[in-house]
Amino acid sequence: MKSALASFVPQEDVGDEAQLAENMVSFNEKVEELKSDSTGEGVTIAILDSGINYDVLDIDLLGGYSYTGEDYFDVLGHGTLTASVIKGNDGAGVAPDVDILAVKVVDDSGRTTTAIVADAIRYAVDAGASVITMPFSLFPVSSYLTEAIDHAVDKGAVLIAAAGNESSQILGKSLAGQEDVITVGSVDCDGTLSAWSNYGSELDFLAPWDVVTLEGADDNEAGTSFSAAFIAGLSALVLSESPEMTSDDVLRELKIITAGIEAENAGYEGYGLIGPEETEKEDVTAGEKKDTEKKIKGVNIDEVMSMQNAQRTNRSRFTGHSMVKENNDGYSCDAFSK
């Protein structure tokens, strides 16, 4: 799914502003047209996140499962916000009739492991999920996790991950850097790449971030997590309308829908398809659950942070999940301990 790019760096001059705005108008029109033809009925999306607060988000759930030793109730708030993008209260969201499978992979302290994510992917696809959205970043990715990704792809599932919110290059060994995972960055309403969005040849799509539908949530909730959820919702609409489509077919349809807001138009130079990219894998024994904890920050629904304030802080602290790297001792380092 990934494409290698000759040069992929941010640029100050993003081209004609009127053209960018026109591209966004065209994108929105295509989304609305698709929504008028499809509601996501008959499609299951598994949301791998911090769970869902079903007291706040009053939607029918296909079911839920927790890998954290807790109920799949969402304490952190991030999973609830993400779910509202896809299926919100009172028919809101991209795909209001989709079936949601809530899979809690982030515990109430904000931690997960690559082994948990791998097991959750297998669970989700075996439970019938056609789309699996992972609105967080993990680094590095183990062989155990790549095997789970392969299993889901073999089953025909569409896997979607957030690019991350550090305004930095996507790493090849991260979840967002995996060949068979659709990676989504964020675009602002004017058609330019969002300041916090990660970038690189691993990006498959850009999508709006201001799409949270939950009443009472901050209007400026932002981040690639919500962009990824938006693309997951669009995927469900496509599959609902044409259930016979393969994951590659869905990818092609998404390319048509998002045409005009690709990275080369939104603020990158040298963007161009020049051939398949080989994604470097972590050297871990196949099937081995060699893992360390990763710290993932969730969004508290009760916390209100303006976009202006957020722009002066680490984007990942309010937009969802942040990448955590392992130190030489094999332990994870808290990205928020600085």
What is the strand and helix layout of this fold?
Elements: E1 9-10, H1 17-37, E2 44-49, E3 63-66, H2 78-86, E4 99-104, E5 111-113, H3 114-126, E6 131-134, H4 143-154, E7 158-162, E8 182-187, E9 205-208, H5 224-241, H6 247-257, H7 263-266, E10 268-269, E11 293-295, H8 307-310, H9 316-319
Number of helices: 9
Q: What is the total tally of β strands? A: 11
Question: Major sheet: order of its strands?
Answer: 3-4-2-6-7-8-9
The run of helices and strands is: EHEEHEEHEHEEEHHHEEHH
Identify the CATH architecture.
Answer: 3-Layer(aba) Sandwich
Distance between the termini: 35 Å
CATH class: Alpha Beta
Structural class computed from helices and strand pairing:
alpha/beta
Radius of gyration over all CA atoms, rounded: 18 Å
Unreliable segments of 5+ consecutive residues: 3-14, 265-338
Q: Which percent band covers the strand fraction?
A: 5-15%
Please outline what is shown here:
With 338 residues, this protein is an alpha/beta fold.
Description:
This protein is of the alpha/beta class. The chain has one domain: Peptidase S8/S53 domain (Rossmann fold). The chain has 9 helices and 11 strands. A 7-stranded parallel sheet has the order 3-4-2-6-7-8-9, with helices on both faces. Strands 1-10 form a two-stranded antiparallel ribbon. A two-stranded antiparallel ribbon has the order 5-11. Helix 1 crosses helix 5, helix 2 runs parallel beside helix 5 and helix 5 crosses helix 6. It is globular and about 50 Å long.
